[in-house]
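task queued by scheduler; priority normal; single chain, no ligands, no partner chains; default sampling; output format set to structure tokens
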Amino acid sequence: MAGTAAPPPLPPWGNALAGATGAVLANAIVYPLDIVKTRLQVQVKRKETDHKPLTTNGAHYTSSLDAITKIFEDEGITGLYSGINGSLLGVTSTNFAYFYWYSTVRSLYLSSQAVPRSPGTAMELSMGAVAGAIAQVFTIPVSVITTRQQTQPKGDKKGLLDTGREVVHSDDGWTGLWRGLKASLVLVVNPAITYGAYQRLRELLFPGKANLRPWESFLLGAMSKALATIATQPLIVAKVGLQSRPPPARQGRPFRNFIEVMKYIVEHEGSLALFKGLAPQVTKGILVQGLLMMTKERMEILFIVLFAYLRRFRDSKLQQMANAAAVRAKEVMPLVAK
């Protein structure tokens, strides 16, 4: 008895659509944590000798819970979702670009092998880094605008387009939309570590399993994201500092690069401050990555079924057209013979 044929793999854009859909759903669910970690990362602890506030807005937060409480009391529930439109737009574009290029690069690698085999850890990381770098170049402007929106004071809230104009009209001009690009290119190791670790952990914990259960996908996504976030947290903090408004203590002078941001943080708070906001960053990352991978696995199955249906529908239509053409040909042939 012949075995059941495996469903054809999704094309790169199908993987990209599945990944982007999962990312949007996951980020929308945990968005308040994104606000909290951004506010914590841009603030610098006050000193008794400080005459000007060191944060980009008036409030100063002592913990994640304190941040949630103060944002809610000062700005209402909408404050916890400030900049969500731009954020989800950025999540959609970044993840679509990432999964598209990751699937493309991986397919090219596998097709180049004389005997197809799963790539090793180093190759997985390299492919993830290439895909991440390409995605960042095209999508970082949305990230810059979203970070600005998330750190705007209560009385200075602006929409996506107005915030973009503010960035363009600053001293940096149009290049301001790509602030933090170097840090972002270095940070491609984060998704590279995440997806490389995901693939390796999947092979170790669930070898040979084609379709994972939701809790299995969540577990792998959470474990891989936690490892990547801890390893790259100082760069994440520096990137947020680059993309947000400069602290009032700098009198409007923006940071020039992520090294300057890190030096400023260490000077005012010490080296451990490079890991500030780690708790909400890891929590958000674990939840998002777990939900993303769990959702992506389901979406891939859904798209495979949908594409299979569309292929059958297309083949059926083509067959009907062929049959109709054959009937017309038979009707015409006697006339030609006469």
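post-processing summary
- The longest helix spans residues 278-337.
- The CA atoms of residues 88 and 301 lie 23 Å apart.
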